[in-house]
Amino acid sequence: MAVIVLRAAVLIGLCCAWGAGASAAEQPNNFYGMFGVGAIRTDNIGLGEINRQGETIGVLSADIDLHSVSRHWVLDVISNLQYFLYQHHVYSDELVGNFAGLARFSIVPERFDWVAQDNFGQQQIVPGEPVTPNNRENVNYFSTGPDLKWVFGSRVATQLSGRVSRVSFRTSDLNSNRQSGAFILRYSVDDLSSLSANVTTERVRYDDSNVNQDFVRNQAFARYQSKTVRLDITADAGSNEVTGLPVVFKEALWRLKVGHAFTRHTYLELSAGREITDSGGFLREVQNEGITTLNFGSIQRSSDPFSSRYGRLSWGFERNRTGLRLSAGKYKEDHVLQQNLSHTHSQGDIGLRRDLTPTLALEVGGAYTKEDYQDTVANSNSKQYYGALAWRAGSKLTGRLQVSHIRRNAVRADLGYTDNRVLLMVGWAVGEPMRIARPRSIDQ
User: Fold this and answer.
1) 23, 129, 302, 416: least surrounded by Cβ within 10 Å?
2) Which has the closest alpha carbon to 393: 351, 369, 419, 357?
3) In terms of Cα–Cα distance, which of 133, 78, 111 is closest to 442?
4) Three-state SS for 281?
């Protein structure tokens, strides 16, 4: 499935609104849900140019945006999940999409919290090949553990955290248990900014350690954070290393995330960085960039940790009748052990919405992606376009009719294809989406 199919379910859930809001800490309590039923008609279910086959896919969707804060808890959920039912059973029925959830329970207010976090998504199994249901698998990353906090005076605080985690893959032998710990020493410069020293360690143990190499990842970095009404800045600089591998793996770590809301209706966001991660951790990191940016081919199967370098710039404009969003990103993976997986993923997106009437909106958009591997035979690029009409009947009932086209060009001619799809969805809304241009993320 292409990113346009995924984004279609997201957009019907937002029902003529781009994005879901700003960072979690800045938003009022809110719940919005869109539950839909519909169908997709494709003329190329196998995503190949030989023996093209049409198929009708039934779709059940659940898009949820929940943010709830009280004295005793913080709850955040962002999801866009779909269940596909294949009419002629070309593939097995499946659950796909994205889910990111965080629950923080205050056992002793401002002293002892218990945290649970879950991320669900998909990864590509065989790099370079079209992402059909046979070439992707579900991944789930669950973590839980305590945060212990001590405050010294009005400006200095420390935090000690521990987590146990389980990363599960539907078909690959990459299931693992993880134990991690973190220590933070934070100094509040003023009410809006802080400096901190951070040390983290994580041990990864695979169920099948005869095939996959267990490892330990350590990080030490300084962090600067500033949050104002319109400008958010988080900057990290330090070092990270991986031990337990046959080779030494150590490099500089840096991360930068800047978000600027020019007005309530316009934002600009920049994120860039370099760090050592793995396929399970990368799922969580990419979803933290904004769940709707993740598509089925964003993550590839790998058992070794790798160096991740990335940069992403996005701009959004949202008013009552018009919405426009632009984004461009580049992600580079350098693998130490599985060097054939080293590659660069580039992507650009554009989407425009215009309300024709108070109950009818027109949407058009497109995306361009490019994959460059060391083994150039796997290189490819794809162009995707869509146009849609979204309507609302009353305050709860919504509908969407969308037409999309994708063309994939590959070095290997048999891996290229074209695919045309028609989507028809009817949805039922609960609550109201927040019309804020800037996309919402889960604060950890």
Assistant:
1) 23
2) 357
3) 78
4) helix
Structure pTM?
0.88
Amino acid at 368: Y
Rounded to whole angstroms, the Cα distance separating 59 from 57 reads 6
| Helix H or strand E encompassing 443 | none
Any idea where the domains of the chain sit in the sequence?
3-67+78-99+126-139+208-431
Question: Which residues contact residue 228 at a Cβ distance below 8 angstroms, ignoring those fewer than 6 apart?
Answer: 192
Distance CA(15)–CA(280), nearest Å, equals 31
Q: β-strand 73-86 against 94-108: which pairing, if any? A: antiparallel
CA 269 to each of CA 231, 259, 260, 320, 348: distance values in angstroms, whole numbers, following the listed order: 10, 4, 6, 21, 14
Q: What tokens were used for 328?
A: 């461009």
3-67+78-99+126-139+208-431 — its CATH code?
A: 2.40.160
pLDDT tens sequence for the chain (444 residues): 433 343 333 333 333 332 333 444 456 788 999 999 999 999 999 999 888 999 999 999 999 999 999 989 999 999 999 999 999 999 999 999 999 999 999 999 889 999 999 999 998 888 888 999 999 999 999 999 999 999 999 899 999 999 999 999 999 899 999 999 999 999 999 999 999 999 999 999 999 988 899 999 999 999 999 999 899 999 999 999 999 988 888 999 999 999 999 988 999 999 999 999 988 888 888 777 654 444 555 678 888 899 999 999 999 999 889 999 999 999 999 998 888 889 999 999 999 999 999 999 999 999 999 999 987 778 999 999 999 999 999 889 999 999 999 999 999 988 999 999 999 999 999 987 655 445 555 655
100 near 81, Cβ under 8 Å?
A: no
> Residues 202, 206, 208, CA angle at the centre, nearest 5°?
165
SS3 at position 292: helix
* CB-neighbour burial class of residue 252 (10 A; exposed 0-12, middle 13-18, buried 19+): exposed
Report the 10 Å Cβ neighbour count for 247: 7
Please name the amino acid found at residue 251: E
The one-letter amino acid code at 47 reads: L
**Tokens describing residue 181:** 């710990």
Q: Three-state SS across 123-176?
A: EECCCCCCCCHHHEEEEEEEEEEEEEEEEECCCEEEEEEEEEEEEEECCCCCCE
**Is 253:240 a contact under the CB 8 Å cutoff?**
yes
Q: Cα 133 to chain center, whole Å?
A: 19
Q: How far apart are CA 272 and CA 162, in angstroms?
A: 27
Residue whose C-alpha is closest to residue 13's, from 41, 50, 38: 38
Distance CA 234, CA 76 (A): 20
